[in-house]
Amino acid sequence: MxxxxxxGAGRHGGGCGDCGDEAVYRFDxxxxxxxxxxxxxxxxxxxxxxxxxxxxxxxxxxxxxxxSWLLQIVPAPPHPGSGLSQVRGPMRIEVGTSSLRASGxxxxxxxxxxxxxxxxxxxxxxxxxxPVAGAVADSQAGSEAVLSDGAPLVPxxxxxxxxxxxxxxxxxxxxxxxxxxxxxxxRHLWDQTTQELTQPDTGxxxxxxxxxxxxxxxxxxxxxxxxxxxxxxxxVTATKTxxxxxxxxxxxxxxxxxxxxxxxxxxxxxxxxxxxVYATAGWDVQVTIDELNVPEDASLTNTExxxxxxxxxxxxxxxxxxxxxxxxxxxxxxxxxxxxxxAVPREGAVGFADVTLGTETFIEAxxxxxxxxxxxxxxxxxxxxxxGHALNLFHPKHDVHSPPIGIEIMxxxxxxxxxxxxxxxxxxxxxxxxxxHDRRSLIHSPDPQVRPGWKPFGWGHGSLSAGLPLPVDADxxxxxxxxxxxxxxxxxxxDVYVGEYxxxxxxxxxxxxxxxxxxxxxxxxxxxxxxxxxxxxQEVEQVRDVVVACGPRPTVLLxxxxxxxxRMQILFTSExxxxxxxxxxxxxxxxxxxxxxxxxxxRVTVQVRSAATEDERDIAAxxxxxxxxxxxxxxxxxxxxxxxERLADVAQxxxxxxxxxxxxxxxxxxxxxxxxxxxxxxxxxxxPDEAAAYLDRVLEGRSAEQVLELAATxxxxxxxxxxxxxxxxxxxxEADMAEEDLNRAEAVAxxxxxxxxx
Amino acid sequence: MTTTGLxxxxxxxxxxxxxxxLVAIVxxxxxxxxxxxxxxxxxxxxxxxxxxxxxxRAQARAAWPWPVDSGLRQVRLAPGEVLEAxxxxxxxxxxxxxxxxxxxxxxxxxxxxxxxxxVRGEPVTVVREEPLDSAARARMRALEDPQAAQSIAxxxxxxxxxxxxxxxxxETPTGRLLAALATGDTAAARDAAAALASEAGxxxxxxxxxxxLPPGLYPGDERISAVGTTLAGQDDDGRAAALLAxxxxxxx
Lengths: 758, 252
Known about the structure:
The complex is a heterodimer. By secondary structure, chain A is α+β, with helices and mostly antiparallel strands. Chain A has 14 helices and 37 strands. In chain A, α10 (658-671) runs antiparallel to α11 (688-699). Chain B is built from eight helices and twelve strands. In chain B, α2 crosses α4 (173-183) and α4 (173-183) runs antiparallel to α5 (186-200). Chain B has a single domain, classed as Immunoglobulin-like, CATH 2.60.40.10. Chain B is globular and about 55 Å long. Chain B is an alpha+beta fold. Chains A and B meet through α2, β20, α3, α4 and β35 of A and β7, α1 and α2 of B. β20 (336-337) of chain A pairs antiparallel with β7 (68-69) of chain B.
């Protein structure tokens, strides 16, 4: 065999098998072979001594690279704190007949000390094998089966927690010479706030693959090498996990009296099955028929399908990729639908067994007017098609990349029928393989796009992102592990106008079964809490207070099932006026719980509009002034008499509006105490009677709880003794307020000083 | 490539506040001299797409939230005949709001009349206006709720959307009909269709129904039948009936 001719994984036997591969291959940014030479560069190639004298090791055949790998990354040399991270994830190397493409998804886990030292020479813990299909006999994997060696007997696929996702990379070229794979990469960082890929940069990875002349079957190949990422050097280790690229468990349930197409014999006599179809795209799927007696329901709405998904899908582990498919009855004349578009999307799809194929001559004679499940090839096509949607594949005609309409799996059946004729009728004319565009997406698209239950259907079919690359180390944007057993909730008004006083409420709940020691600094001023703010234009800001305090972290033991709550104003923050743009704003709260772990709230949406009424415009004209905003953030106007007057004007003109009340409370807080401006040498005396008068205005028409919420949020969190909170509490106690209301108000006042578990 | 003689138009309100669901009418006209066989799958789930460019040039594609598989349906359009359909312009890919903020939007419809044959409509501008009172804002928020929007699009109640459907969404004539179709209340759908027809004409009521229950995908659906029966008395030219049957129609 001519060693110069690389025949790739699809034509097994490239190179010379066990004797190694000494040719040089270069691949361009699209992964296509551009250069191949027989002579390795001087100084490389040939037989290398192995780790033990006398055991020669030779470069791996290039086909050995093909498949799924577990990639582990550690700093070289280690930098301070590097042992506190595990940086690892799946890497896919696709070696075709004249191409090589690689991609990967990196997940980062921060390790909380104390912990046994994890030095660079120790392997980091890795996800355990998750054999999707047991030992896959490659000969069963389909006509395009990948044949290569170096994979374990039981293939598995690194599948890691979504919360640890950090970055995606793909090769932009590659060279394989004398057992060394070198590839420049393009990296896309994952922003946990927006749940989008962002901030691209570039780097390189280099792996050396050598094997002894004698190989034990099933011993996975390990490649080692270096990577340049974010301006740092890392050591990389890649352990082969499979000859295929990705895996997914599929649970199939079948409605009573319907048939699942376990196999389908095509018109050319070839028998195929769900698993074979996906193997053509390098996917290892195991279909388990779980139920054959899903109760009869002649017509299924999407809601009913969602309920069936919730009630019939079996249990699985959190990190496994899995998908639920139903052979159901009907929904109109649909053949199938990927119905799962809820908060955890793309986990279920259905094929409709009862819908009948037409009677047209372009339908194969024996299939005419037959229910879909009586035509196994047609039903199998629809079910693999719907599963493709669950893996975020589009109909070519709806795909923003505009691949051609054709006869492959992801075309709507109607489109495939358009190409059928009496001589070549449907389903005979259908291809039971994925078009190259879809195949590449299945193999190389980022995990968030492909994994069921992650990004919604429709994500990932535009350009990834743009922007200036910034050096970021291998931890990506991850700064802390996601805390388990804690839930953070953020509450803000759904609808505000520009210039309105806005209160945010953050609640931390212990959802575990053990008490947890947690920070009590549930405010934006003391460093533990921040709001992650996505503006209507998709820019992301971090929101903190206008002042930032430092000091030891006060903590509280939060019993299981109990919560602590903090409240804060967010009209004026480190961003200036937080909501100064009309449109849809999205917020998340992110809390550093204990220095090692963090918890993030679900996203909430605030619809911001322009001030519409005369009152609103009048209020906004004042509160959008920077000095007024600063006074509202600090709870005091200092020695700025002009600002005092502006606050007083709003307080007097708009006492019914909470923004007017907040202005009144700022004045009350300021006047309740003296103030010295040392720089200007100005002393402001306390005016307690005036302060009380402003406070009285706020009480009118408000519950005790509302008054305290306003008072506790105009006071700066760094001033636990701000007079307005105690004054407000005293006044509501004197007033004729309901006891329950008073109790809630007292809780708000307590929380201002130190959040208490409840 | 475009089949000669086919013309696609999209008709929508010039201005509409964000608290009202926008239903447009697409029309495929055979302006040629001979009959032509075309796909009759004139809906967002199959062969129709509508691209929406909004303030700041942000572009989105109107979508039916769930990808479906379906068979081939074709219709023969004689010269002068039209195929019409309603199209719900509420959701973008991924079930996000199609019109997230107030402003002027440009809409362009495209229809794949046969593989390789794409008919493109002229751009149409629709100004989506900011709702000004609190009731209108509540309606807008209800429409933005993913479950409520998916309920409207699927003509079924998704999750906990029932209150929004029978509450704020039903306060506008179009919303009322869409809500009734979603909740499966045929009597309410009849009343709502009659009310919308008296305000905007039977074709608009039929298009609104067909927008969420494409007749070729849901033939024989009792809600389509109920609306059809209600509109029959006012449907002098048969346009509404054609809309509710995915059937060609010849304008006077």
